[in-house]
User: Which sequence fits this backbone?
């Protein structure tokens, strides 16, 4: 969900914001209709086929209102449940910034996504976590990790995270071949592709090393009390 902020300097025309040399005639008409609707505190329902430039149309019109010093608009807020459409808004915002006149500041953007897009296990379909069960699995992993390191727990967050990392080192040192790291977003993590276990046999407890490291990184005053859901990096 990109949330686009206004920059410092104003622009006098939506054409300065449009990311391509010339709009299609339909784009031009749509932008001008959207600007007019916004000026009149109205609404605009616009329909167009794929490839007609609706995303650039919407951004150009919205940012024109945001950057007008006489306008009351402060943000362009985009809501979509379709990831492909989200990426198109991100790409078009980059295009706008790449082609802005030199005297204008770039437009900032923030994308907010759900748990399935940020949980490393869900992103890679590992650790028994997928798009269908990601919320329940992450909640269970957080709860078990907190129980292990909370008041009266058998270990610490530092120890859990270190244990997960050391198992990779042990594999490499044992001569059994290279360590197998979970990779996500094109980068390796320090942990295995599956979740970790504390203890052995039937008494072992599954935990999340990413959440354990998060707890370990909290200030000492924060780690003395039970972490709430609102402090979780993989929260709601």
Assistant:
């Amino acid at each position: 969900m990109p949330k686009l902020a206004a920059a410092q300097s104003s622009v006098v025309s939506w054409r300065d914001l449009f990311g391509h040399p010339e709009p299609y005639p339909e784009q031009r008409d749509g932008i001008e209709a959207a600007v007019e609707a916004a000026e009149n505190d109205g609404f605009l329902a616009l329909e167009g086929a794929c490839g007609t430039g609706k995303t650039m149309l919407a951004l150009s019109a919205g940012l024109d209102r945001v950057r007008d010093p006489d306008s009351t608009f402060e943000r362009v807020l985009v809501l979509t449940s379709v990831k492909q459409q989200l990426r198109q808004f991100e790409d078009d915002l980059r295009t706008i910034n790449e082609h802005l006149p030199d005297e204008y500041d770039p437009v900032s953007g923030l994308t907010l996504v759900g748990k399935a897009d940020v949980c490393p296990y869900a992103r890679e379909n590992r650790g028994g976590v997928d798009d269908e069960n990601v919320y329940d699995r992450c909640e269970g992993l957080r709860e078990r990790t907190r129980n292990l390191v909370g008041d009266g727990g058998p270990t610490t967050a530092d120890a859990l995270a270190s244990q997960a990392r050391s198992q990779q080192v042990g594999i490499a040192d044992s001569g059994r071949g290279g360590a197998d790291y979970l990779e996500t977003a094109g980068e390796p993590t320090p942990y295995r592709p599956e979740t970790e276990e504390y203890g052995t046999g039937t008494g072992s407890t599954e935990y999340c090393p990413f959440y354990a490291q998060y707890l370990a990184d909290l200030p000492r005053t924060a780690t003395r009390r039970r972490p709430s859901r609102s402090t979780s990096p993989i929260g709601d």
